[in-house]
Amino acid sequence: MNSSLKYLAVDLGGESGRVVSGAFDGKTVEVEELHRFATGGIEVDSTLRWDIHRIWQGIQAGLQTANKKYDKIESVGVDSWGVDYVLLDDNEQLVELPYHYRDRRNIGTLDQITEIVPKSELFATTGIQFMEINTLCQLFAGQRCGDALNKSQHLLTIADYFHWCLCGSKTIEFTFATTTQCFDPVKRNWATSLLDRLKIPTHMLPEVVSPGTNLGNVRESVQKQTGIGKVPVIAPATHDTASAVVAVPVATSSAKNWAYISSGTWSLVGLEVDTPVISAEALMANVTNEGGVDGTWRLLKNVMGLWLVQRLRLAFSSRGFEASYEKLTELAGQATSAGCFIDPDDPSFLNPPNMEEAIFRFCNETGQAPPADEGEMVKCVLESLALRYSQVLKEVSALAKTRIDVIHVVGGGCKNILLNQYIAGATQLPVVAGPSEATALGNLMIQCKSAGKIGTLGDVRTVIRDSVELIEFEPTALTYWQDALVKFEGLCKKRNSQNVAQASGLSELN
């Protein structure tokens, strides 16, 4: 691919960020990781923040590597995890280190918001799943915890903040804007009336631009620092899930009868639809509607993902048991089923001090014998994730009034063969795993599309399907998974009742 066009994707995740190159020869695309760096949250005065200075250093280091490797770079674009934001003042200076979505200040905000704006009205206005990590909840917490918002002139998402660092653009890309719970998907603009009722400033909300927009050329200062030259900065689908869904390698014959799971720290589970589904049934199911590329929408649910395993690994390490993710998955595959499950979306798993202890506590409180060892613990988590995915896919399928014939698992989690097999079993549907580099691929191919090198979203997916290796998994063990789903749904209902009772101040369940 020496004659291929070279594009750069900056792909930022909750644990790490990467600068990835894409070589496109008109028929296939080949990706290469150029530089990886840590992104994770940092503790600042009892709060959890993002060290965006460190992240920017990592991005620049990746651009320097790209400059040394390639004679010419066609463009660069950034995608990132969702919900978090950066505030700039009148002088375009950072107001404060941005908060991490797992910071404790968000606790209780959803109840406070829905006392002012009923859930039915909030969902009708935004179409977004109710989660205390949402941008809306964070902004509500922010305006009650200080004057940072009042000092701010510009609000940028994480991805678009780094676009500003690269080229000075102060815009927010559409797919990310739709995820904030501050955007009206019907009016296709900021929900300013809603924000006014919550006393959240709206003067700082920027213009919303479409994926593929040319934001301008790299700043001269960045050119000097990195050497990459006068390269265009293109807004991809900046929300990482949107980019990942761009890269779902569906065959043309699949039509709309496919679902996706973008599997990573979070799992995003859903369907691609033509219009948002904002109905009473969608409200009851607590689903979300997020913008996609070429007029598509993502009807999905956020599910706690491999964060659970990441934090288990840390908990194991703290007591001297060191193992790679591959080793933990191997142990889970060898383990006898512990016969216990967890609800991955239980609030106790959002950011516990010790994930192992949190799982033990959940099992005890729901009347289950906890896992006996590390392998059983990881097996419990992976099986529970698969069962939760099965629940969500049934919900979104019913809401969209469509059947699902195949599930595409993309993102880093698609490399977990055991989880993929569990998904096929729990859903009793075939699973196609790959590509693992879905987010970066989606980012890169939207840049190609913006440059006129490729046509439709379908063309993009054909290129990706022809460029990557895919692994297929068939359903197994129907009886086991049917029984497991019954038990799983029962314990979720029991746990939900406990949580409701605790929230009401009750010390015991009747």
Automatic annotation (TrEMBL):
Keyword NADP: no
Signal peptide: none
GO-annotated cellular components: cytosol
Entry-linked SUPFAM superfamilies: Actin-like ATPase domain
EC assignment: 2.7.1.5
Entry keyword set: ATP-binding, Disulfide bond, Kinase, Nucleotide-binding, Rhamnose metabolism, Transferase
Family from the record: Belongs to the FGGY kinase family.
Protein name (record): Rhamnulokinase
